[in-house]
Amino acid sequence: MLTKRIIPCLDMTEGKVVKGIQFVSFTDAGDPVMLAEKYDKDGADELVFLDITATVENRDILLDVVQNTAKKVTIPFSVGGGIRSVEDMRLILKNGADKVSVNTGAFKNPRLINDCANAFGNQCVVLSMDVKKIGKNYWSVFINGGRTNTGISAVKWAKKAVSLGAGEILLTSIDSDGTKKGFDIELTRNVSQAVSVPVIASGGAGKMEDFANILKDGQADAALAASVFHFGKYTIKEVKKYLKSKNILVRN
Amino acid sequence: MITIIDYGIGNLGSVANALDKLGARYQISSQPKDLRAATSLILPGVGAASEGMRNLKERNIDKVLIEEIDRGKPFLGICLGMQLLFDNSEEGNIKCLSILEGKVKKFQKEKKIPQIGWNSVEIQNSKVKNLFLGIPDNSYLYFVNSYYCIPADKSIIIGETEYGETFPSVIVKENIMATQFHPEKSGKAGFQLLKNFINYVN
Predict the structure, then answer these.
(1) CATH topology of domain A5-245
(2) If residue A218 lies in a helix (H) or strand (E), which one and from where to where?
C-alpha cells in the first residue's frame, strides 16, 4: 500500500532557508543543503524547495543549491519559484531536481503546464497554488507570492491544471501559512476530491494532530511543513510515530 | 565499467549521483560502442514510453541494447527502463523492445494517477537473493508511475506491490533485472539494491 508522505519545505532566499508567517516577516532557518541532508536522515519522504524571491540574480545560487542537494540526498525533491518557461524547468531538472513546481508563471500562461508535461512527463510537473478564503465557501487563487487575488476558485484552477498535465498539486493555504493552527482541511478535501492526481497540503502544521487530521479528514496524499521541523518543535520521526499510532500508513 | 544509457529522457543525473555516492565506476553515454564495451548497462527513465522508444531508435541504440542483453550482459532497467523491455505499451500504444514477452498497462483501480510515493515491495521469489540482499521484505521504495508491466512469464516476477491492484515491481530473468520503483531515490533500501547490482556485476 502506498504510504502518506511527510515533506519538509525549504523556503529560500539568496541561498538561505527562511520561514515567514502568512507570506511575510521572515526568520533565518539555515543552510538548505545541510537541512536537506538532515531531513533525509530523519525519514523525510521528499523535499520541497521554494525560491521565494526568485530573481534573476538568485537563479544561479538556486541552481547551486539544487546541484549540491542532488549530490547529498537519497530521496526525491522538487524545486519551484519563478518558473516561466520550459527552459527554466529544464535547467532545474538538469541540475538534479526530480520535479519542478510552477505557480504564477503557469497561471498567467497555462500552456506552460502543457509544454512542461510534454517535455518531461506529468510526474515532473507540480502545480503549486496559494489559496485564500475570501468568502463563505469560496477559496480564491492568489499569485505573485500571495499578493494578487485572481478571483478564480481553487477547485476550478486545480482541475484545469490537471487537465493540462500537472501530475501533482501543492496546495498552500495563505490563511494558515506559518500560523501553526492546523491545515485548511475543508479546502484540501475539496481540491483532493476534485482532481485525479495526488495533493500535498501545505500551511498551518503545528500540533501532531494537525498531520493526522489533514491526511485523514483533509484527504491529502502528503503533508508539507516548515517551521515545526526547522525550529525543532518535533522531528519527522516523531510525527511518523504518532501517525502510525493513529493507523495512518507511513514509511518507517 | 557500467554504462548508464543516455537516451535524452528522465533524470540520468540522479542515477549517476547515486553511483557516485556508492563509489562505482560508470560512464553516461548514448554511443553504441559504449554500450558494447560496457561490462553492464543501466537504462533509467522517467517520462513517456513513446518518447523513450523514439529516442532509443534515433540514437541507434535499440538494436545494440537488444543484442547486448541477448549476449548476457548484466542489465538494470529502472521505471520506464523496465517497461520498455516488453512487447508493447498502452502508453501511446507503441511497440517496445520485445526483450521480454508481455505488455505495459495503465492502473485501473486507484483514483489518483500517477502513483507518487513510497510503496512496499513484497518479495515473491527467493531466487532474487543477490538483488535484495540486506533489504527486508516489505521495505518501502519510491514509485512514480501510471503504467505497470504484465510479463507473460510469471516466474520472472520477483517482487509485487499493491496500488489498487497488485502489480510486478521487480523482475529478474537471468542477466536482466528491472524495478518499477526508483532505487536511486529510495533512501537506504534503494541504495542497498544498487550496491547489490554493482557487487553482482563486478
Answers:
(1) TIM Barrel (3.20.20)
(2) none
